[in-house]
Amino acid sequence: MRERLAIEGDLAQRTEFCGMIGRGPGMQELFDLIRRLAPHVRTALITGETGTGKELVARALHHEGPRRVRKFITINCSAVVETLFESELFGHVRGAFTGATENKVGMFEQAHGGTLFLDEVGELPALVQAKLLRTLEAGEVQRVGSLEQRRVDVRVIAATNSNLTQLVAEGTFREDLFYRLNVIPIPLPPLRDRREDIPILTQHFLERLGRDLVPPRPNVGVSQEAMRQLMAYAWPGNIRQLENVVERTLAFSQGRTQIDVADLPPEIQAAAEPGLAVRVAFPDDGIDFENYVHDVERELIRQALRRADGNKRRAADLLQLKRTTLLEKMKRLQP
Q1: Is residue 154 domain-shared with residue 218, that is, in the same domain?
Q2: Does residue 179 share a domain with residue 207?
Q3: Which of 82, 159, 134, 73 is nearest to 108 (CA)?
Q4: What value does the mean pLDDT take over residues 84-95?
């Protein structure tokens, strides 16, 4: 058990990049993309479901680029009161409005020379969208209540879990701003499309969260049956949900060195259908963890294809995968 945990920990280290973990082809391609873009990109749009790690990608672009020693400023656009948006982003001068008792430096000016991360950019009010577009195009900001234009040199990275194309069609998001932000699109895959990463992500969270416990428990593992359930679950909350589940299971495992199915939340216990996962007896001298995970994936794909009468698109739907992802996995998992 200790040797297996050590192997999994080493694997997590080799597949970690700027706080992100992934050994599958999708994440490795993302890591390569970040390395290529970071030295040059000035504007990027990161898209993905809630909990997929959009802020980590933004921080990686900042850290791997020439602005790494300058500030990284974050604003959550869904958490700012609409009437204060303009002041938060662009600043204001004293007397600009009731309560403006002193000058305020906006986030664009704070991020001068560095990076401004606009999280949930789809929530921006229409007026602020217009001013943001001008700032991106002219490199200038105008504080509320002032006529002075101030030069700013800022890399802008935006992120959203909304469909901006649909918001543009509905008229709630400016088309010109969308194209200005979408210079470099960076889509993030949901966890259900990268199930091969679930074991090392789980082990990573177990080790990190276990070290913070009193007393520390950094060497907790996961039983094969529990891992089958984790890999069969759809993870609507993605990596953030997985981290929360790991934290919960550590609490429910009550000092034991192994997480079992009974420690998992009910919805995850019920996720896998009986007989769907590969049945492998655990030998006395251990198991090849990576090959076992590959066997689980291969069996899931085989069962889905059988139910879909060989139709790959329908099999992909059954597995909640993109068809291209399924084809990629089938090629990689060929014996």
Answers
A1: no
A2: no
A3: 73
A4: 87
